[in-house]
Amino acid sequence: MLSELNIFWLLLPVAAFSGWWIGRRVTNSHNDNSSRAIHPEYFKGLNFVLNEQPDKAIEVFIKMLEVDSETVETHLALGNLFRRRGEVDRAIRIHQNLIARPTLNREQRAHALLELGMDYMRSGLLDRAEGLFLELVESDMHLNQAYTELLEIYQQEKDWENAINIARKLELVSGDKLNPIIAQFYCEQAQTALDDGNTRAVKDFIRKAMTFYPDCVRASLIEAKMHQHTGKDKLAIKSYKRVETQNSDYITEIIGPLYECYRKLDRVDEFVDYLVTLVNIYGGISILLMLTELIAEREGENAAIRFISNELKNRPTVKGVDRLIEYTLSKSEGETYEHLKTIKELTGQLIEGRAMYKCNNCGFDAKLLHWQCPGCKHWDTVRPVFGVAGE
């Protein structure tokens, strides 16, 4: 609820204009002083404001402000202001009252429909908002914003087929390329099909996603998981390795699954060679830690300690130091052991409390990878964090 003072300042300019304008219409146009007389209803509305009865005040001022070509913009501005202040019910009432007037021309009615649709969006009445935006589309008015809002509605409802159709229409109207986003919509359908065990549908959606956006990392990951689930590890490896050429930032997401595939095929030596190549080209602590673990299994912990210690001189990271301490602890005793244990606890706390992903658009921090940022709702903007505290 707005405070009394806020309500006063919000409504007083509208009330003053309303009283002056109505007074001008009902008095003798030849009498200059009379033409500026304030309508009595103005004082009635002002009394409601001062007595903390804003709803009644709004009703009075709306009735005073007769809708015609001179006042439509005032109604729209007032409704928009209420919506931005969170008074959505009042905004809806004003815009509904406006649309009900038969004096509006085509453009004015379309503008009012758009504003009312935005009101419904703000209040969560998506079905009502959808109907108004579709009406605008049918009338060929405000297409850019109508398509944009419809796209938002279908994303919230996870209606990916309609989202794809609207996105393609929005491309034509706005001139923006939405191929990466459309690919994500196909990936949403592919993920659902994968969860349902519908391999045929997964393949179809992945093909469409890759057609719209060949560098869609998510499509490759879903395809690889599908191959893994069906025991086709060679094909899964091929899909996982495609990620490197699509966007090397996401290599960290394929290391664990790739190891599983190579292990099942009894080709771990080949995997080790691939990791060495990746470390030399990209670095990345996830790759380094996997390689260190495999060295420890094959050559012993001393070899692993030497390897990771040398790598950390060039690429220091908290995760790397944490793993080095872990290996060293098993070979320490006494006071040295206690000191290392304390340091290990500190590095563990740093790792646990640190976000490993960040949105490139809004800066949202996350511990898990999100294909749509929970903060700004943009698609494919969340990336692994690089640097000493990250990869």
Radius of gyration: 31 Å
List segments where confidence is low: pLDDT < 50 over at least 5 consecutive residues.
Answer: 1-5, 15-38
Oligomer: single chain
Q: Which structural class best describes the helix and strand composition?
A: mainly alpha
Give the DSSP E fraction (strand runs of 2 or more residues): under 5%
Q: What this model shows, in words?
A:
The protein is an all-alpha fold and 391 residues long. The protein has four domains: 4-174, Serine Threonine Protein Phosphatase 5, Tetratricopeptide repeat (Alpha Horseshoe), CATH 1.25.40; 185-282, Serine Threonine Protein Phosphatase 5, Tetratricopeptide repeat (Alpha Horseshoe); 286-349, no CATH class; 354-391. Helices cover 70% and strands 2% of the residues. The chain has helices at residues 4-26, 40-50, 54-64, 72-84, 88-99, 106-123, 126-138, 143-156, 160-174, 179-195, 199-212, 217-229, 233-246, 255-264, 268-282, 285-299, 301-314, 318-329, 334-352; strands at 357-359, 365-366, 382-384. Strands 2-1-3 form a three-stranded antiparallel sheet, with no helix packed on it. A hairpin with a 5-residue loop joins β1 (357-359) and β2 (365-366). The protein starts with a helix and ends in a 7-residue tail after the last strand.
